[in-house]
Amino acid sequence: MKTGFIIKTCKNLYIQISDFNNLYLAWRKARKNKRYKSSTVRFEQNLDQELLSLHRELNEQSYQPGQYVHFLVHEPKRRLISAAPFRDRVLHHALCNLIEPIYERKFIYDAYANRKGKGTHAALDRCTHYLRRYRYVLQCDVQQFFPAIDHAILKQILGRTIACAPTLNLCKQIINSGQGVLAGEYKMRWFPGDDLFSAARPRGLPIGNLTSQFWANVYLNELDQFVKHSLRCKGYVRYVDDFLLFANDKAALRQWQTEIIAFLQSLRLTLHENRAYPRPVQQGLTFLGFVVFPDYRRLKREKGIQYRRHLKTLFSNRRQGQIEQEQFQASLMSWIGHVQHGDTWGLRQRMFGELTS
């Protein structure tokens, strides 16, 4: 990503973050696909004043995050989404413009979430690649990942790389603003050395923040480095908190599972152990909305039902004139572009036959 800024060290980041040109670039990114939302329009109506206000607050180090707006989504499972005010989202982009390139050099190749040139389809392709090379797979996921992210540990991880004190303080402000947002989503877990005060440890990152998505990668980069360099696992794929380990030996996968469970305790995270066990790759695995086998992929049944409902609503809205043809076409092509990464020709034919008959 080219931002127009040359990063020489981690010590002068704050000046570049607060630079007006960086804030302007951040505004353009924040409004992408949200140009007609009321908060975006209000910000744009006073664009110069809003950006100058952010610029001044950053220079004075007086910036304070605003209040979140919370809402629930159920696709496919219940999640509490927390949306920051638009001016805060501009600030999040301004921050990530400068610190993402630093961490990109630290991330491993096979971490696929929320990174340029990666994404779900690249992760699926890599999964297929390893399914064809190895005999067994260990599939793991972290329990209540975003609610469980520990603030003190995250700040410590960031502090190992970000030498610029004002930038680190800005990161801490944003992290602190999410304290308690997901408290109702977290079930207390105890780790070795805990006492009663451990229940009050600040934890949780708001789902919906650009910074939360980025810091999730920073947090689990600790796991990535452990798997690649300590366990020396060559077949590894991670997408957010879902990750796969491949090997030709079941015993090796069982041993790695034990070591990963122990390592994750240092991050105050736990696995869904009842779902994490080595199995032959020929049985296939459910990953990122698909059931993936070495030679083909099927769309997950629940995803098929969800997409059928979505398309039914989309066709209905178009017939009633509630959406324009351009928006209808864009939504349709987006869906086709996703599901065609699996063997879904017959499914698509049936769905379109039902909806156009």
Describe the protein in words.
With 357 residues, the protein is of the alpha+beta class. The protein is 51% helix and 11% strand. It is built from 14 helices and 9 strands. The protein has helices spanning 13-18, 20-30, 38-45, 47-60, 86-104, 120-133, 145-148, 151-159, 165-177, 210-230, 250-265, 301-319, 325-339, 345-356; strands at 69-74, 78-83, 136-141, 235-239, 242-247, 278-280, 285-287, 290-292, 297-299. A 4-stranded antiparallel β-sheet has the order 4-5-3-6, sandwiched between helices. The chain has a 3-stranded antiparallel β-sheet with strand order 7-8-9. Helix 2 crosses helix 4 and helix 8 (151-159) runs antiparallel to helix 9. The longest helix is centred in the middle third of the chain and has 21 residues, at 210-230. Residues 1-9 have low confidence and may be disordered.
Blueprint of the fold:
Layout: H1 13-18, H2 20-30, H3 38-45, H4 47-60, E1 69-74, E2 78-83, H5 86-104, H6 120-133, E3 136-141, H7 145-148, H8 151-159, H9 165-177, H10 210-230, E4 235-239, E5 242-247, H11 250-265, E6 278-280, E7 285-287, E8 290-292, E9 297-299, H12 301-319, H13 325-339, H14 345-356
Antiparallel strand pairs: 1-2, 3-5, 3-6, 4-5, 7-8, 8-9
